[in-house]
Amino acid sequence: MLSTGSMCLRNVYTVIPEAAERGKAVVLRCMYDLENEDLYQVKWYRGDREFYRYAPRDVPPVKVFPISGIEVDRDASDAQQLTLKEVTRRAHGRYTCEVSADAPSFLTAQVHGSMYVVDLPKSDPELIGLKRRYKPGMKLKVECISYDSMPPANLSFFINSEPALSQHVWHRVGGGENGSLWTAYSTIQFVVQKHHFIRGKIKVRCSAYIYSIYFRSHEQVADEERVIRTTIAPLPETREAMVFPIHRVSDNSGMSIGQRAAKGFLQLMFLVLAYYIVR
């Protein structure tokens, strides 16, 4: 917020990261344009407590006022840059930069920004439960887990690079008791359809992010199960056999040899005729 009538103090703004990783150094910047004025001093506050001052006319120009959880790197701080060493969780909060011009105006402007201190996961998110193959009509159920962070990671599912439908996804978190780290869980479940496959594959990706400081993804691919169609050979056509009774005449019937021969020839012809009728 710029004070009224400050025509010589323009374009005042801060560059403060949205989040910083615990245990790492972080740089905060206070930018301004004094035009033709000289700088009188720059002050930094965390909440309502001043902890850093830069006054070019003082010797030394840098003064640090102790606040628990904040350690200033004097050698890497000046009129526009403030460097904090190995930030702790106590370093999160609202920061204010106050810039004052020198005589004759002594105009002052204040600008604000907030920073969170986070614990980032040590590994990428995990995907559990994806099968090697699916076919339309099968149920797909996969769980994504991001371990040990503060705050818990935000998890998002993607199917073939498209955001998953919200009605298919459930989220929960675990841990966080007594200042411990959180574990984030997310589960996706739906019935696989034909359109889910692209060139015979379905891709499932889980992305985890924490503010703008952390973004990791894990993707797995499953294949479409091919249905092998088999044809059953038709059974051979069968015909019902016709049975004709044959009356055999005893040799003692009193028939002559010629008669018996003629009788046998007729029986043979009858059998042949019956065979062709059956076919």
UniProtKB/TrEMBL annotation:
A Pfam family it matches: V-set
InterPro entries listed in its UniProt record: Ig-like_dom, Ig-like_dom_sf, Ig-like_fold, Ig_V-set
Organismal lineage: Eukaryota, Metazoa, Ecdysozoa, Arthropoda, Hexapoda
Domain of life assignment: Eukaryota
Organism encoding this protein: Pararge aegeria aegeria
Protein name: Jg11403 protein
UniProt cross-references to Gene3D superfamilies, sorted A to Z: Immunoglobulins
Annotated Ig-like domain residues: 23-108
